[in-house]
Specification:
- With 885 residues, the protein is an alpha/beta fold.
- Helix content is 40%, strand content 14%.
- The chain is built from 32 helices and 25 strands.
- Helix 9 crosses helix 21 (561-571), helix 10 crosses helix 19 (538-544) and helix 28 packs antiparallel against helix 32 (849-857).
- Bound molecules: adenosine-5'-triphosphate.
Length: 885
């Protein structure tokens, strides 16, 4: 920790010294802007020159340069108006041990030269300014060092214990082109240092405290100006393999993970052109954090996605009740989904009412029938692929005379225009004058073809056997269709007995080839195949699982009957119309998804196999194209134009070069599998806090996590300082931590505000439920209003999940500084003030309830109120049972 231990002069510098220092920084900033303008002029000159000299270079290169100049102009304009702190830091350094300079023009030595300090006096040998991008002057001397460059590392790492060459670290606050203030930390307070003969002053109360004291908005800010040493170690950790970071609430895990993404891109843009994925637990946390990377100059290659939106087309925000989430998240689902996918084949094709089925005669089935029904219904004449009469007609018409002599004359006989091949027998399928069959669901239960002048039929049992044979092994169900087709042909061929008629294997093979060709080019056969082996969709299969009877069969020895009931009931949501029979659901499944459904969809995608689609060309990253001036992009630029692009990039990619998992403690085993598939070849940064886990079976999740990360070597870090909560709030939260995870250490709060948490009580025991709710509503609104008056920024009201909608209604009139959150939604977020409503309700909601309550209690940066109901058993001071000593 640098600033925490650093000595900052307690604002002893007089106003005139402060003004002088600000003036000096202003002069430097002006120089930087002048240099940026020069660079734009240079680019414009190049353009002009190129135009004068005609087509020098390829048209593509000229267009690129044109775009570059245009972009640079736009960016400069925005830099002027929008970049609050383009230049934010400065370090004053002693002479280094060696005189070597790095590529950024700065001296590389970490340690000071012998004799750099004598009698506690020293001369500053080098001053570096740190900013969001690097700028060199015309002589290649550094005007600004990019915060990610090695030369900037001492700005973050130096501490009074290990100051290296740093004497003073300064944070500069600016807006647009104007410097507003400076905050200094002295790393060697005992040394009197001079710069150009004048003593080096120290101004302000220290940068970290200034940053932490600022009011919060609904979006996270970058911490680039005040990254602390232990955080910097994580951000700059080598990219290889897996970086795991643990730390309590408010230790900066999310901030560090995002800064690390920017650092990795800076270090090796080519490598990470494969994209960086940041996985967040909730859309709220995505919205809260998504501005950080653009403000650091990076966004084009980073996709931030919530767990509920990780699968294209899925946008889940609903939460399952804990007992259902527990089932859906468990790794037992893998086996169940495999069974369900195979079982679902027996149900209707998704387009069961579509034209293909109408074209195939006799495929009608009672839409409500399940597999058993379908099989027992076989043989009643409704499940044919080809109508019996029609088949007879075909035979009578002499379309086929697969005769003993093996000569086919279907072409001669005008048989359906098939290609005639001498020497091969000609099995055929007739094209019967079929009356359209009413749309129906359920797979066909009989396949009938006409070949060799006779009818060949596979009945329901035979078809079932063929299906089982095709399903052997673990290959994706949709991709097994060619195999099923081949096995069907084998079965038909065997049944025809034609194979026995040929003693000459060559003739037999030729006959078989003709047989296959003729049958498989018949529309009726293809229609049969479509209906009998439909292409399954993940949503369709999931919806089919809403049928409790079917699910019970598929889940035998996997779930208990209670779990089957709970799961089936939950999946009924997918069947929008509410008609929950499985067959209809198979063609439907487009109802709202829960967050946990998404991992199931992803697993099913794997089990079913994606239909082949032409590969989309990968988009070129504009950052790769812009050379030299690429650094000059700004926040507004990147957020507006970037969003659409970011979404497209995320849509196209399922495999990333680096995966960052935030709040990793919350991923269920099924979610780990989903995320793991997106980083099969990736390096990883995984941040989390076991004490905040809302998942009830951490061992199972740990196993799934290990599988997702594979055998890659891991590097572990622990963050120990809580930058969010004042000590007063952290102390209260620690009481719940002691209950939730006995023995687990709390992070150390970096500051204290002197404001103790407040306790109030809404409703007392014995009140009727409606009256108690009203009292709770009133108390919530009153207290939220009071907190809004107390703080300048945001107020978060955290309630049990079951009260989420209710609380939103209660608070609707208080404006947008206040937000109502279900306890599971509070993950990762922070507010100036937090109101936690009924700790007992939150804790009782799930087996991990105490940990969820711990999360709720650690969201505030300034003030916390705990509002109790009767069930909290508050003492006379309003302190609920759970929070007493
Ligand atoms: N070095 C720093 N300088 C200034 N602010 C910081 C620093 N480190 C963290 N913070 C601030 O502390 C707060 C907590 O950070 P962050 O959300 O990243 O913590 P976290 O460990 O992810 O917390 P949680 O586990 O509760 O989600 C944020 O407001 C962040 O900006």
């Amino acid at each position: 920790m640098a600033a925490q231990n650093a000595t900052h002069a307690p604002d002893h510098a007089s106003d005139s010294v402060r003004d002088r220092e600000i003036e000096a920084e202003q002069t430097h900033l002006d120089r930087v802007y002048r240099r940026l303008e020069e660079k734009i002029h240079e680019a414009e000159f190049l353009m002009d020159d190129a135009a004068k000299r005609g087509q020098v270079g390829t048209p593509g290169a000229l267009a690129e340069r044109d775009a570059q100049v245009f972009q640079a102009g736009v960016h400069l304009h925005r830099l002027n108006s929008e970049y609050e702190d383009f230049l934010f830091g400065r370090i004053d350094l002693l002479l280094g041990k060696d005189g070597k300079k790095g590529p950024d023009g700065a001296y590389t030595s970490v340690e000071p030269a012998d004799g750099a300090i004598e009698d506690n006096r020293a001369e500053i040998a080098e001053t570096l300014h740190i900013g969001r991008l690097g700028v060199l002057d015309a002589d290649y001397a550094p005007l600004v060092i990019d915060w990610r460059a090695p030369a900037a590392a001492p700005f973050y790492r130096a501490t009074p214990v290990a100051p290296g060459r740093v004497v003073r670290r300064r944070v500069i606050r600016s807006k647009g082109r104007k410097v507003l203030g400076v905050e200094d930390d002295l790393m060697r307070p005992e040394v009197t240092a001079t710069l150009d003969g004048a003593e080096l002053p120290a101004i302000g109360d220290g940068a970290l405290m200034a940053a932490l004291g600022r009011a919060r908005s609904h979006t996270m800010r970058d911490i680039v100006a005040s990254i602390q040493a232990e955080q910097d170690m994580v951000i700059r950790a080598p990219a290889a393999s897996v970086t795991e970071v643990e730390g309590g609430p408010g230790t900066g895990k999310t901030a560090v993970a995002l800064h690390r993404a920017a650092y990795l891109l800076y270090q090796d843009r080519r490598r990470y052109a494969g994209g960086i994925l940041v996985v967040s637990p909730t859309p709220l946390l995505v919205a809260y954090t998504e501005g950080v990377l653009p403000s650091l100059g990076e966004e084009g290659q980073v996709a931030i996605r919530a767990l509920g939106s990780l699968v294209d087309g899925a946008e889940a925000t609903a939460y399952d009740p804990p007992e259902v989430a527990r089932i859906k998240g468990s790794s037992r689902m893998q086996k169940l989904l495999r069974k369900a996918a195979r079982g679902a084949l027996e149900l209707a094709a998704p387009d069961a009412a579509g034209p293909a089925r109408e074209a195939g005669p006799g495929t009608g089935q009672d839409a409500q029938l399940s597999l058993e029904d379908l099989i027992t219904a076989a043989g009643d004449g409704t499940g044919d692929c080809t109508g019996g009469d029609a088949a007879d007609n075909g035979a009578k018409n002499g379309v086929t005379n697969g005769a003993k002599n093996g000569v086919t004359n279907s072409a001669k006989n005008g048989g359906q225009g098939r290609r005639a091949r001498s020497g091969t027998p000609r099995p055929t399928m007739p094209t019967p004058p079929t009356p359209p069959t009413p749309p129906a669901a359920g797979p066909p239960t009989r396949l009938r073809v006409v070949a060799f002048g006779g009818r060949i039929e596979l009945d329901a049992d035979e078809l079932h056997r063929v299906r089982q044979a095709a399903l052997g092994g673990t290959a994706p169900v949709n991709l097994l269709r060619p195999r099923a087709r081949r096995l069907l042909l084998d079965a038909l061929w065997n049944k025809s007995g034609a194979g026995r008629r040929y003693t000459d294997p060559e003739l037999a093979a030729e006959a078989r080839q003709g047989f296959d060709e003729d049958i498989t080019t018949e529309p009726e056969f293809l229609e049969f195949l479509d209906a009998w082996w439909p292409e399954l969709t993940p949503r369709g299969v999931l919806a089919a699982m809403a049928d409790e009877r079917l699910l019970g069969r598929w889940a035998r020895r996997i779930l208990n009957p209670r779990e089957v009931r709970q799961l089936a009931r939950s999946l009924r949501r997918l069947d929008e119309g509410g008609t929950s029979h499985a067959v209809k659901a198979m063609g439907d499944g487009h109802g709202p998804l829960s967050v946990h459904d998404v991992a199931l969809l992803d697993e099913l995608q794997l089990i079913l196999g994606a239909p082949m689609r032409p590969a989309k060309p990968r988009e070129v990253d504009p950052l790769d194209q812009l050379t030299g001036l690429e650094e000059l992009s700004t926040f507004a630029d990147r957020t507006s134009a970037g969003r659409g692009r970011r979404e497209r990039l995320a849509e196209e990619r399922t495999d990333y070069a680096h995966v960052i998992v935030d709040e990793a403690q919350d991923l269920t085993p099924m979610q780990w599998r989903m995320v793991g598939r997106r980083g099969r070849h990736a390096t990883w940064t995984v941040v989390g806090d076991p004490a905040q886990s809302s998942w009830s079976d951490p061992d199972e999740a740990a196993l799934a996590r290990d599988e997702a990360l594979g055998a890659r070597p891991r590097r572990r870090f622990t963050l120990t300082v809580n930058y969010r909560n004042p000590a007063e709030i952290a102390e209260l939260a620690a009481k719940v931590l002691a209950l939730a995870m006995p023995g687990m250490a709390s992070p150390q709060a970096v500051r204290s505000t002197g404001v103790e948490p407040r306790f109030t009580v809404a409703a007392l025991d014995g009140e009727r439920a409606a009256a108690a709710d009203e009292a709770l509503a009133r108390a919530t609104v009153d207290e939220a209003g009071r907190l809004l008056d107390e703080v300048d920024g945001t107020v978060g009201v955290v309630v049990a999940m079951k009260r989420r909608e209710q609380a939103r209604r209660w608070l609707a009139g208080l404006g947008d500084r206040v937000v109502a959150l279900g306890s599971l939604e509070a993950k990762g977020l922070e507010y100036d003030a937090t109101l936690v409503v009924s700790p007992a309700e939150i804790a009782d909601e799930s087996p991990a309830g105490l940990r969820v309550l711990y999360v709720a209690l650690t969201r505030a940066t300034q003030q916390l109120t705990v509002l109790s109901t009767g069930s909290d058993e508050p003492d006379p001071d309003g302190v609920p049972d759970l929070l007493r000593d």
